[in-house]
Write a structure and sequence with these properties.
single chain; alpha+beta; Arc Repressor Mutant, subunit A; three-stranded antiparallel beta sheet; two-stranded antiparallel sheet; rod-shaped
């Protein structure tokens, strides 16, 4: 900043570091810090300060110059000014007015950013922008499939029941001496009957045997190592 003149004498602005307790007492008494500093310095160098006193004016606010370390700590260590803090300027720097104007322009055009999270160890954590995986959606079970299984089983049982009622004759073991039909022979007769009556699909051998034993209660035995149905004959 340029020098200041008052009553033919040049005055210069400078920064002075004052202890906090001294500054508080001076402020309470309403003393002019510039006058008192000039008076003390004039006595030290042997100058009569009373003949060239500083013009009366409102006391200016003190200028505080902070170190870069303190500035970084005040801004949270993010490398940019905190929104609640003002940048520290040097009053003796002639480029200060231009710097203030440029900072105002930069602040007006600066895009707003999402705040980062500072961990306890002082490390900066950026917000998590990883897209979350889509949750699997459970689709309702097809009703068509649920209806198809019972319908298939019903059709299979219906075919076996018709075959037993039309082609298989039960016999009395005591009066008639019983009857014996090999399982393979009966199943082959059943397959031919299904084809002749357009039954499709043809029930497999296991389903046919389980139905005869459990549903129609036809007994089974082994004759000469051949599995057979007993107490029945074929028409």
């Amino acid at each position: 900043m340029t020098a200041k003149k008052g009553e033919g004498v040049q005055w210069r602005h400078t920064s002075v570091l004052i202890r906090a307790d001294i500054f508080a007492h001076v402020h309470e008494r309403g003393l002019n810090i510039s006058h008192e500093c000039n008076r003390a310095l004039a006595d030290l160098v042997g100058i009569d300060y009373r003949q060239q006193q500083l013009p009366e004016e409102a006391p200016a606010e003190p200028v505080i110059i902070a170190s870069e370390q303190k500035t970084a700590r005040a801004t949270g260590g993010l490398g940019q000014e905190n929104g609640s803090l003002r940048p520290v300027l040097n009053a003796d720097d002639p480029t200060t007015p231009g710097t203030v104007l440029q900072q105002k322009k930069d602040t007006a055009h600066r895009p707003r950013q999402k705040s980062a999270v500072v961990s306890g160890a002082g490390q900066i954590k950026e917000p998590d922008r990883t897209p979350q995986p889509a949750q699997p959606v459970s689709l309702p079970r097809s009703r068509t499939r649920e209806k198809a299984e019972p319908a298939k089983m019903k059709g299979r049982e219906t075919a076996i029941r018709r075959f037993v009622s039309t082609k298989v004759v039960r016999t009395d073991a005591e009066s008639s001496g019983g009857g014996v039909v090999p399982k393979d022979e009966m199943y082959q007769r059943f397959v031919r009957w299904c084809r002749a009556n357009s039954v499709s699909p043809v029930p497999d051998r296991r389903s046919f045997s389980v139905a005869l034993k459990n549903r129609f209660v036809i007994q089974e035995t082994t004759v000469n190592n051949v599995p057979c149905w007993v107490n029945v004959t074929m028409k």
